[in-house]
């Protein structure tokens, strides 16, 4: 007499196992995707903050290196920023001080989504009338960030009219940026880095 082997699984048990496995898989996948998304956002924001700090440091270093005698607001079409004017060194001869009417002008301005540094020397001025931006020394655009030109600025803070410039005062710098990663950028507002420094 042959006996049938009845130790297998029923259809209901198989379906129950598949359902439980699907639920666990969906939960694990959801945790994995949200963890990956959080890592991507944190990484992009970290890189964006580092690069924004670098841009602000470059601007402050330029101010420190130039040691301007005068700072003048600068506007020209889409260009907006400041001009640092440093007078030429005085020449002393027979106890008389001769001050030639020359100066080096360094422009730091925003143009669209980039920051431009351009110096026009006294020699360049005497040889012609150069225009700021024709041959900039440094252009910062950002590799991991997108500069928001509408909200980014470098300007003088003045109690009264300062269109002619001032020998001392406060410069306000505001960098409005989004991470270069478009998936992260579309889910957030721009980051604002604000800094004020004296000259």
UniProtKB/TrEMBL annotation:
InterPro entries in UniProt: N_methyl_site
Pfam families registered for this protein in UniProt: N_methyl (PF07963)
Gene Ontology terms describing biological process: establishment of competence for transformation
Cellular component terms (Gene Ontology): cell surface
Compartments it resides in: Cell surface
Keyword presence, Translocase: no
Location (main, coarse): other
Transmembrane segments: 14-39
Keyword set, alphabetical order: Competence, Membrane, Transmembrane, Transmembrane helix
Coiled coil segments of this chain: none
Highest taxon, organism lineage: Bacteria
PROSITE patterns: PROKAR_NTER_METHYL (PS00409)
The protein, known as: Prepilin-type N-terminal cleavage/methylation domain-containing protein
Species assigned in the record: Jeotgalibacillus salarius
């Amino acid at each position: 007499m042959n006996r049938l082997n009845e130790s297998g699984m029923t259809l209901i048990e198989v379906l129950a196992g598949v359902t439980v496995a699907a639920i666990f898989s969906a939960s694990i996948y959801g945790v994995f995707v949200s963890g990956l998304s959080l890592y991507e956002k944190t990484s992009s924001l970290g890189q964006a903050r580092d690069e924004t700090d670098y841009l602000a440091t470059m601007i402050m270093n330029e101010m420190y290196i130039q040691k301007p005698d005068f700072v003048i607001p600068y506007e020209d079409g889409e260009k907006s920023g400041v001009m640092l004017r440093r007078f030429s060194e005085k020449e002393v001869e027979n106890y008389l001080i001769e001050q030639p009417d020359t100066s080096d002008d360094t422009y730091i301005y925003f143009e669209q989504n980039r920051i431009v540094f351009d110096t026009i020397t006294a020699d360049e001025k005497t040889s012609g009338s150069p225009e700021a931006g024709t041959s900039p020394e440094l252009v910062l655009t950002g590799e991991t960030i997108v500069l928001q030109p509408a909200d980014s600025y470098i300007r003088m803070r003045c109690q009264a009219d300062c269109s002619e410039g001032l020998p001392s005062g406060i410069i306000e710098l505001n960098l409005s940026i989004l991470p270069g990663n478009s998936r992260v950028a579309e889910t957030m507002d721009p980051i604002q880095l604000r800094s004020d420094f004296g000259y």
